[in-house]
Structure formats: C-alpha cells, structure tokens
C-alpha cells in the first residue's frame, strides 16, 4: 500500500490508524493513502485495532435461546431489529454468538468467554447462566442482559415494565365485570414471569377483588395440562376470564386456544381470554386483548445501555413501557356486569 501511494509505511500507519494528530500530513498525502487503501480493498484488522486502542467498535449479541432468533417468526427477532438499527446509529458493528451451538445454558463454565472478543455484549434468553454473567461483571466487562435480572449484583439490564402492563389488563377485565379471573403461567419462575404475576395480583387488589395463590395456575406441560376438561372445571367454578403469560415459546397461549376450540367455547361470549404479551407472529386468530412488548425499542434501549457502559458511563433507562392492546378476546362476563359493579 505504501508503494502504491508513494509514501512511507509510517505515513500509511498514521493515516489509517487515525493517529496523525500533531503530525504534518498534507491533504494530498492523506488522499493518496486512502485512495490506495480503497483500491486494495483494505479492511482494518479488528484484533490489531483492539490491541492499539483497547476498543474495536464491536458489540456482541449472545443468545441462550434454542435457536438463534434470525427468523421473523421467532419472538426474539424484533429485538435484533432494534439492536441492529441502534448499533448502526451509535457507530458499532455487531458480532453474533449463539449459546445453542454449544448447549445453551448448559454449555459449560466458559461459554460466554467468546463475548470478550467484542467491546461489550448483550445477552438474550430466559436462562443465561448466572455464574458466567457474574464473572463478566466482576471482571469489569461491559454486559447488558435483555430482560430484568435479580442477579448477579451489578449486572445492567433493560426490560419491559410487565408489572404495570399486567395490572392494566386486569383493571380492564374488572371494569367489564369480571371477578373470577385465573392467571396461567408456565412453571418457570424467571423475573419476567414474577413481574407479570405481581401485576396481576396488584390489579385485583387495586379493584378490591380478593386474590391469592389459588388465582394462579402453573403448568409444566401446557399441552397436557390445559384441556377442555380443565376449562369446564373452571367455568363450573365461576371463572369468566383467563389471563395467560406470554413466553418465547407461547406454549400456554397456544394450548389454551386449542382447548377452547376443542371444547366448542365461544370466546369472548362464554369465556374471555387475555394475553400478557404480544401474540405469536404466526397466530392467525383474533387479536388478543393484552399488551404489546416493544421488542424493537427494548433492543435499541439495550444497545444504548451497553454503549454507555463501554464508554465508562451507566445505563439510565432500565424499564420500557408496554402499550395496552384492546383486542377482540375480552367482553363482559355472561349475564352482564354484576349489580355490585354497577353500584
């Protein structure tokens, strides 16, 4: 390159390394070097840049989902859209890692070490390993978890405000006259689930409706557990509305709708259904009442948080508001609004 530009190797290094401040290099000489670099298809070596400047403008994205979320039908795909757009606006390139290729959360004690190739890393997935995250945090490596985490101490995260969003859905149901409401959640007590459950209970309490653990139905295997017989039991006990937690598999929501169809129930005339989250991308049924998770906005907020950490600062927007979705799966309970509500 130096021969093609007609300059010394030192001059090439100064121009391409961005360290020519204070050195008298003419505009003409700069253009010769840059022109030669373009003709030769020169691309800076990120490893060398990292050694020289301690940064390479790369942000990692590490997924602990079973399949890396690059398919538009995957519930995590919109997160990546927001991540990509915000990273570009912040001047970062992305490097994608997948825990699923080495066993996901069971990949061993050092699966996340590869993330150190980047300046910092976003971590996706409900079951990212706590010990590995703690090791990165303790080492001072910039890492942000996409989704609220209770541990390890010092881990930065960006998540959706599921508590207030779930409370709003329940408030809407109570306003329509529902009093016997059941929450269905998968037997997987991660923060996203506990936040939804907390909002569910808070919504009932705020409306003066008794609540307790009996209001929550946990199922490890939704397809086996959510059956037409189970629905008929709930209806016989007075249940008029069912609220379902959304997960990345949407297992409970899919199983519940299949049971409703098999039981021949009319939704929402005979039974109201609400979804605490966004419906699956391939769901072709009526738009469910609930709330939408702002996945692209969350991805963008996570990148801003990570960029702040890489730059030596701290994130300032851990929670992103969810928007209530009126939908078409909720109506007043059979028999109308109770007289007590009208008074």
Describe the structure in your own words.
39% of the residues lie in helices and 16% in strands. The strands form two sheets. A six-stranded parallel β-sheet has the order 2-1-3-4-5-11, sandwiched between helices. It has a six-stranded mixed β-sheet with strand order 7-6-8-9-10-12, sandwiched between helices. The chain is of the alpha/beta class. Helix 11 (251-263) links the parallel strand 8 (241-245) and strand 9. The protein folds into three domains: 2-43, no CATH class; 58-160 and 295-321, Response regulator (Rossmann fold); 162-293 and 324-342, Response regulator (Rossmann fold, 3-Layer(aba) Sandwich). The N and C termini lie far apart (85 Å).
Radius of gyration: 26 Å
CATH architecture of the largest domain: 3-Layer(aba) Sandwich
Structural class, by secondary structure, is alpha/beta
Q: In the CATH hierarchy, what is the class of the largest domain? A: Alpha Beta
| Largest β sheet strand count, sense and barrel closure | 6 strands, parallel
End-to-end separation in angstroms reads: 85 Å
Helix content: 25-40%
Number of helices: 13
Mean pLDDT level:
85
Shape: elongated
How many runs of DSSP E, i.e. beta strands? Answer: 12
Widest sheet: strand ordering:
2-1-3-4-5-11
